[in-house]
Design goal:
- The structure holds two protein chains of two kinds.
- Chain A is α+β, with helices and mostly antiparallel strands.
- Helices cover 54% and strands 10% of the residues of chain A.
- The longest helix of chain A is centred in the middle third of the chain and has 42 residues, at 228-269.
- Chain B contains three helices and no strands.
- Chain B has helices spanning 3-14, 37-51, 68-83.
- Chain B is globular.
- The chains are: A alpha+beta, B mainly alpha.
Chain lengths: 391, 84
């Protein structure tokens, strides 16, 4: 136990250092130029943070899921895009680790992630499915010499051009129904990416997420054994929503910290005079606390449920509602906090080049409600609420 | 009515399968046969209504509704608890 705690602490100390010394100083440039945070990724690789969650017996860092979530928060405080790239990579890895069959190709793959610090991107959304990750058009199709292939048109692939490997969902076979999906992990050498769109968005600009047509050819062993429906309910969806919400909390926290620094500065300049921003800041703290409470509780519930043998709760509709709601609540609350911070700082917060600028924070968190559109999640929840008993 | 037939009736009406529900094998995977998550909720509601039962939360998961056999086992269990 003590060893595990030490591992977490050492990992988090490294991540905090990278956040402060590398992510923070580059964040404005990454945002302005919509460029990939190469410095942050180089440092995270150096720190062996890309394999932090891989079990120790496979050579990885063996850190806890809580430590991973905290790392997303810490990176989010300094650069939303770097945090999002880190989080998305970890979502793929956590999913693979949690559904690992002993002796499978995926075990060797994780060892390679450790030695090469490979970066994994995901191709889960698809043109033509209306944003429903639970359905695919692309299918795993027999190719030459016993191999398989797929072709998938994805509206966005975050950091697709910078990833070493792709984690893709597709129908199990050409004749399979849209919901009968599997996960395929393909390496860069097996994959061809044809960019189909540009990337000049409002926020999260450094994630470099244009659309692509993805084509890959691969042996059968690179298809994950567990069906995607199970992988999705037990891992991919809750893990995504927890890690995303942690980094959104991180961004919101930095916006709050900047507005607090602004109020303190004003108070020092005019000692004894009431500052209008001070009252607003106090209100803002309540908003931030709500976000922090929801995010922290979601993490706790997931970790507790994951410790039960067979983790039965995670596959229930109650759990789906729970983690869907975490995503909706956090994605709405984070930009609310950032907007509140803007209200406190006023024009110096609105300007992009002051110590109190919060424009990037606001724009980055505005992406939250689109990452799996909240409207679609509400649609799912509306249906689940009809049948779930205790929510 | 035999529970198995009643379940097939509910599936025919609510599962929106591209195949004939009465011709499905008891252990055929309903999701693989094309039942969507949304349709499965309507199936659950119709089963609760038709059998006058309530599926507790721990039963509200994919594995319980993935085949006629698994649905029947769950319903038989709930009816037995009610009769006891």
């Amino acid at each position: 136990m003590a060893v595990a705690v030490d591992r977490d602490q050492a990992f988090l100390a490294g991540v905090r250092r990278i956040a402060d010394e590398v992510c923070g100083p580059c964040a404005d440039e990454v945002d302005r130029d919509a460029r990939f945070p190469v410095e942050a990724l180089a440092e995270l690789r150096e720190e062996r943070a890309l394999s932090a969650f891989v079990p120790v017996e496979l050579g990885g860092g063996g850190v806890s899921f809580e430590a991973l979530a905290e790392a997303c928060l810490q990176l989010g405080r300094r650069c939303g895009a770097s945090a999002m790239v880190f989080a998305m990579h970890q979502i793929q890895l956590v999913t693979i680790v949690r559904h690992l069959d002993r002796g499978s190709w995926f075990e060797d793959y994780l060892r390679e992630v450790v030695t090469d610090q490979r970066l994994v991107a995901s191709v889960t959304s698809e043109v033509g499915t209306g944003g429903d990750m639970g359905r695919s058009i692309a299918a795993v199709t027999p190719a030459d010499r016993g191999a398989f292939m797929f072709e998938k048109a994805a509206p966005t692939v975050s950091y697709g051009a910078y990833a070493d490997d792709l984690f893709t969902t597709a129908r199990r076979a050409p004749e399979a129904e849209p919901g009968d999906q599997v996960v395929v992990l393909t390496c860069k050498e097996q994959t061809r990416l044809e960019q189909t769109g540009s990337w000049d968005p409002l926020g999260m600009r450094g994630t470099c997420s244009p659309g692509y047509v993805v084509r890959a050819e691969f042996p059968a062993e690179q298809v994950l054994g567990t069906p995607f429906a199970q992988v999705s309910a037990e891992s991919l969806v809750p893990v995504s929503h927890i890690l995303w919400s942690h980094l959104w909390l991180g961004i919101a926290r930095d916006a709050f910290d900047r507005s607090r620094a602004f109020v303190r500065e004003a108070a020092k300049r005019r000692p004894g005079e009431p500052s209008p921003g001070a009252q607003r800041l106090s209100h803002l703290m309540s908003e931030l606390s709500l976000l922090r409470a929801e995010v922290g509780l979601g993490l706790r519930e997931f970790v507790d449920a994951s410790e039960e043998p067979g983790r039965p709760w995670l596959s229930t509709m109650t759990a789906a509602l729970r983690f869907n709601n975490l995503k909706i609540a956090a994605s709405e609350q984070a930009p609310r906090v950032c907007q509140g911070a803007l209200g406190v700082c006023g024009i110096v917060g609105f300007k992009n080049d002051t110590p109190f600028s919060v424009g990037r924070h606001l724009r980055d968190t505005m992406s939250a409600c689109l990452m799996v559109a909240n409207d679609r999640i509400h649609q799912t929840n509306a249906s689940l609420l009809l049948i779930a008993k205790e929510v | 009515m035999d529970p198995n037939d009643q379940i097939r009736g509910v599936l025919a009406e609510h599962a929106r399968l591209p195949v004939d529900a009465s011709a499905l094998a008891d252990c055929a995977d309903l999701y693989q046969a094309g039942m969507t998550s949304h349709a499965s909720v309507n199936v659950m509601l119709a089963l609760e209504d038709g059998f006058d039962i309530e599926f507790p939360d721990h039963m509200l998961k994919r594995s319980v509704f993935e085949s006629i056999a698994s649905i029947e086992a769950a319903i038989v269990e709930l009816l037995a608890v009610e009769a006891a």
